[in-house]
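Blinded run. Sample ID left blank on purpose so nobody reads anything into the name before looking at the predicted structure. Input follows.
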Amino acid sequence: MMMNIYRGDFIGLTGFSGTGKSTFLNVVSALLLPSTGTLTIDDQPVTTKNMNAYRFLFSYVNQDVFMLNSSIVSNIAFADKSPNIDKVMACIAQVNLTSWVESLSESIHTPIGELGNQISGGQRQRIAIARALYKDSEIFLFDEVTNNLDDESKEQVLKTIQSQEKVGKTALFVTHNETELSLCNSVYNIKNQEFVKIK
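Blinded prediction complete.
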């Protein structure tokens, strides 16, 4: 399997379960090392020496969202020890969570419980997307990212994702959702360990 990804590309990946779509995202982001072949960036191979810098380029939002046993703001700003609150609130607005956050007695400082067990799956998913926006990564990886969202939130989130294309960000989507695929300039079906371009 070989693919060239260029800055600004929005690429959709479809295919039956078990064909390797999520594995491909893990390899692209260097969470998994390729068993054969080479992962390169700007014609330079990704190695153990440059892997951490390479991984920093990515934000990965998948179905199994990792949440800290902490507050909303900590989960969005994540590793930022001095969060920019205005930026946090802007990211919250972009994923259609403002009304919900404002209804909470502790607002963005509300604890969400172990692995986010005190909030809904859709809220966890949107917080994860807000986290990716806060990090302002160069490359976004979305694995079935709208599955747990209601229609209104899905529309808001997809508009936000689409806006990232206008500022030169790159995104890969694992999805069967036609609306998500419509955002992509290229769509591939993974079949028999090959990329078949369908758009």
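Unblinding after everyone has recorded impressions. The longest strand covers residues 186-191.
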